[in-house]
Each structure stands twice: as structure tokens, then as C-alpha cells.
Write a structure and sequence with these properties.
Elements: E1 6-12, E2 16-23, E3 30-33, H1 37-50, E4 53-60, H2 67-85, E5 94-101, E6 104-111, E7 117-121, E8 129-132, E9 138-141, H3 145-157, E10 160-167, H4 171-190
Parallel strand pairs: 3-4, 7-10
Antiparallel strand pairs: 1-2, 2-4, 5-6, 6-10, 8-9
Helix pairs in contact: 1-4, 2-3
């Protein structure tokens, strides 16, 4: 059995074309061609704090909405985790982290137990974040797509994930802090436990 935990997943639909390669035991590098500025910032933070290497390309019907591309990226990234973890033999399986970010305090809990469920209490205002695009035109991030991404992720990864804003004011800080908290919780969950060896972390004997 290979010690490498690397997976590549392609997802091509009439709405999106996505290819991602994930290394669970990386160095925090993110080399993804991502057309949405704030979303790119979130994926880079996720990789940096989770010590995951992620590369690939994201293309989608942004003339319609950001929802399709962001949700499908979540699905694809989740599928990468499921594929790289395989049977989940030897991992911790669950993880938890509280991340402080200035005035915000964020919490994430995850369990790679084979069942998909998301509880997201991010306490976002729903007001889009506005920035300047690279060509000098106005760009934005649809904050309602934050939960769409994580819904897609748990579906692809077959995990339970709880995301909670304990307190906070800035939507930017809430979302970034939750991405960082999630990455640290996920990092803890997917790390190998040397005491476990290659035992499956379930009393069922299998993760389903």
C-alpha cells in the first residue's frame, strides 16, 4: 500500500469544469487557477493552515452566478479528500479547532465517519464583499455561497462538519476564520495516529 495520500478529481458539467489535485501531507501550497478573488484567498488560507497542497483549474458560468462554481469546487475538493483517505485506515477521523481572528472567534468540528451533514451558523450578513478586480473593474464575492461551498464539501467528502461563529463583526473575518478553523480541524482529523497503525477508526470495522 502506498504511503502517498494524493488524489486527482475532475468534475465536468454544462455549468462548470473543475480539476483538482490534493496532497493531504503537503506543505500548504495552493496553485489553483481561480477566477474569484476572495474565494482564491479562502482556498489559499485553507491550504496554508491545513498544510495541504492543492493545484488545478476552476472554470464556470460566472456570467450566471458564482454559486455553481463555488459549490462544485466544494464537491470536487470533498471528493479529493474521500479519494485520498480511501478506507480511512489509521487516521484520527475527527478533529476540532477554535480560531481567533481579531474581533471574531470561530469554531469548526469535523468527523470523517462516512455520513454527510453540515451545520453552518456563520452569522453572515448576506451582503456581498466588494473589491476591485485585476482589470480595475469592480468585483464581488457572494457571501451566501460560503455555505454552498461547505455543503458541497461534506457531500463529496462524506463527513460531518459543524461551523460556528461564536462572535464577530466582519463578514470577511468570519468567513476567513471559519476556513482556517475548518482546515485545522480537518488536518487533525486526517492525520495518522501512530498508535492505531492501519486499524479502521470505527467500531463497525468500516467507514460507511
Amino acid at each position: 500500500m502506498s504511503d502517498e495520500r494524493i488524489a486527482t478529481v475532475e468534475r465536468n458539467t454544462a455549468e462548470t469544469q473543475i480539476t483538482l489535485t490534493l496532497n493531504l501531507d503537503g506543505h500548504g501550497r495552493c496553485e489553483v487557477d481561480n477566477p474569484i478573488g476572495f474565494f482564491d484567498h479562502m482556498l489559499r488560507a485553507f491550504c496554508k493552515h491545513g498544510m495541504f497542497d492543492l493545484s488545478g483549474t476552476l472554470h464556470g458560468d460566472l456570467d450566471v452566478d458564482q454559486h455553481h462554481l463555488i459549490e462544485d469546487t466544494g464537491i470536487t475538493l470533498g471528493m479529493c479528500f474521500a479519494k485520498a483517505l480511501g478506507s480511512c485506515a489509521g487516521i484520527n477521523r475527527s478533529g476540532f479547532f477554535i480560531y481567533p481572528m481579531d474581533e471574531s472567534l470561530l469554531q469548526a468540528s469535523v468527523d470523517f465517519g462516512g455520513r454527510s451533514f453540515l451545520v453552518c451558523d456563520a452569522k453572515l450578513t448576506g451582503i456581498p464583499l466588494v473589491s476591485m478586480g485585476q482589470n480595475g473593474t469592480q468585483a464581488s464575492f457572494q457571501t451566501d455561497c460560503f455555505e454552498d461551498f461547505w455543503l458541497g464539501f461534506v457531500s463529496g467528502a462524506r463527513c460531518n462538519l459543524h461551523l460556528d461563529t461564536i462572535r464577530g463583526r466582519s463578514d470577511h473575518h468570519k468567513m476567513e476564520g471559519l476556513f482556517k478553523a475548518a482546515s485545522r480541524a480537518i488536518r487533525s482529523a486526517v492525520e495518522r495516529d501512530p498508535r492505531r497503525g492501519m486499524d479502521i477508526p470505527s467500531t463497525k470495522g468500516v467507514i460507511v
